[in-house]
Amino acid sequence: MAKILLVEDELDLAMLIKNWLSGESHLIEIESDGREAMYRLAVNSYDLIILDLMLPNLDGIKICRQFREKQGSIPILMVSAKNTIDDKETGLNAGADDYLTKPFHLKELAARVRVLLRRPPQMQNQKLTVGDITLDTLACNVMKGENVIHLLPKEYRLLEFLMRHPNQVFSSESLFMRVWESDTAASLDTVRGHIMRIRSKLDHNNENSIIQTVRGLGYKIRN
Ligand code: CA
């Protein structure tokens, strides 16, 4: 699961890409305007950018350069109908990690996204385990011992995110930015509510919760 900013002003293409990548359980936000894209990158947190070149108000090359100048380090996949070697060189020199020429097959786009998101080996584990809780990232299910635990999609995403980063403390705000769509109307209470529900589904009454509250700082998964 990754949170991806898709900067593309051809909305039909943007929707096709969104549908395809959502099928691989990524969270996709579409932005069609170059300047708005810079704003989103400044205030939101993403795992990857798919960036068109020709955009209203600010082109993809400038977005890429400005983002890198501000120390933005997440992978950028540039997509464009410009297909000469010079175009590709310009894109890569501006800080893109990969360059895909339009038209492309969505399968190829998804494969390149997978490569760019490739995580260190310990993060690729299909099964994440903490205590007697096991989360299978391929089957998308959660087990406690022998029992299947039924989580709603956002509860699942939140738990997966925390289990991928054991012993790291995250504030409600940073969990919200990583797990929810940026334009969602939900508030930080939503995060607290989801944590409570995950706990009520996973914990027995008299044991320490799998998700620990670190006072004044946020939450972490004990390991
Ligand atoms: Ca365009």
Report on the structure:
By secondary structure, the protein is α/β, with parallel strands linked by helices. The protein is built from eight helices and eleven strands. The protein has two domains: 115 residues, Response regulator (Rossmann fold, 3-Layer(aba) Sandwich), CATH 3.40.50.2300; 96 residues, Orthogonal Bundle (Arc Repressor Mutant, subunit A), CATH 1.10.10.10. A five-stranded parallel β-sheet has the order 2-1-3-4-5, sandwiched between helices. The chain has a four-stranded antiparallel β-sheet with strand order 6-7-8-9, covered by helices on one side. A two-stranded antiparallel ribbon has the order 10-11. The radius of gyration is 19 Å and the shape is elongated. The structure holds calcium ion (CA). The site of calcium ion has 5 residues, from loops.
Overall morphology: elongated
* Alpha carbon gap, first and last residue: 21 Å
- Named at the architecture level, the CATH assignment of the largest domain is 3-Layer(aba) Sandwich
Number of domains: 2
Mean pLDDT: 90
Give the number of DSSP strands: 11
**Largest sheet at a glance?**
5 strands, parallel
The stretches of 5 or more residues where confidence is low (pLDDT under 50) are none
Structural class: alpha/beta
Strand order of the largest sheet: 2-1-3-4-5
Indicate the proportion of strand residues: 15-25%
Which ligands accompany this protein? calcium ion
Please give the count of helices: 8
CATH superfamily membership of the largest domain = Response regulator
- What is the succession of H and E elements? EHEHEHEHEHEEEEHHHEE
The top level CATH class name of the largest domain:
Alpha Beta
Rg of Cα set: 19 Å
What is the third-level CATH name, the topology of the largest domain?
Answer: Rossmann fold
Helix content: 25-40%
